[in-house]
Amino acid sequence: MRLLNEFLSRLTPGFRQTLGNAGWLLLDRVVRMGLGLFVGVWVARYLGPSQFGIFSFALSFIGIFTTITALGLDSIVVKNIVLDPNVAPNVLGTAFVLRLVGSTLGILLVVSLGKLVLPQDPLAFELVCILSVGLLIQSLDTIDCYFQSQVRSRLTVWAKNAAFLLVAALRIALISLKASLWAFAVAQVAELLLGAIGMLLAYRLTGGRITAWRATKSRTTDLLTQSWPLLLSGMAIMVYMRIDMIMLKLMKGDVAVGIYATATRVSEVWYFVPMAITSSVAPAILRAKNNSKVCYDRISKLFSLMSLISIVLGSAIALSAGWIIHFLYGDPFRAAAPVLAVHIWASIFVFLGVAQGPWDLSQDLLKLSLYRTLAGALSNVLMNIVLIPKYSAMGAAIATVISYAISGVFSNALDSRTRRIFVLQMKSLYIKSLFKRDIITR
Length: 442
Description:
Elements: H1 2-9, H2 13-63, H3 66-70, H4 74-83, H5 88-117, H6 122-137, H7 142-149, H8 154-176, H9 181-205, H10 217-252, H11 254-268, H12 272-287, H13 292-319, H14 321-329, H15 336-343, H16 346-362, H17 366-408, H18 419-428
């Protein structure tokens, strides 16, 4: 308690505003984590390991292509508006058009590859086709980029949580009606649509007008020049976050996917924490890009915070994995407990890797970030090929932890430009240092 009070007393006014924005993002995820976990568990129990595995496979398959829709533009759009608010209409309009094109391309790829990979599984292919519609809807997440740049993420939270709550009720109704699997895929798309409508209303009520957006050729070239490393990096991230379920289905079947998906749902539900905190801290780090001492100091403190949260979280989940799986999912999913106890330790490397993102952006090292991510994706695929046939879902969990460690932390030691970041990440594991310094300033 004494350390916590000391920590809070050292918060600067600028960082208080940053924490406020992060708080709204955390609230968004806490609501989803609480109610979403409750409803998700109910859905999993209703579907059983096999059908839950099919549904999880379809979501993972679609997830790989979500980065094509985003085109790696999100952080670039935020950066451009933060540095020059006057370019917002041009940047937002261009980004929106690019994302529409990307989503169309994504849907075509999803359907084509789905037909190729799933010739003997019409149900899985049907789910993939239904869920692919969500890629088009996500083009409107461009509005969220604007809210992030203004540190007003609460507006996105209101919109998306309203949609989430409505669809959560719909999912419960579907269970009561004993609906088929495709109905849950439709509900997934409905949540995206309602959230997009909510963001449109919020943007309009705060004085924004989409009709004022303008796309230009010069801005298109500029944004794509900046974002292509993030696009490829995002694709690589989604590959090594989701390829395990696809490989599990092809090698071990739907039940193995259901078991692994159960463990990862509990483990990955916490990944919102570094994303929420980092997205709010990012503007402060970007503003310090020309002052290396301040920039390193801020990123160092962010690493310390991430290490503190992830170590405490990993220890608690690993020690109680058996009880968590039994309590939430019941005996049919008991094989997921040891998988969860291993997979949860990937969170340390995820937290530190996400925290490094704003520093890479501020130092124009996006290409290097891409290479690290590609190394993680390649190592994950190779280890899955070796480990899944022998250890099934546990093999996929081991491969995930190792590949996240390579991509998020240890690959930084291989390049002189990121070697200091690697040292700071290692030092951050000494979490007591978090309480010895003032926290990030604006």
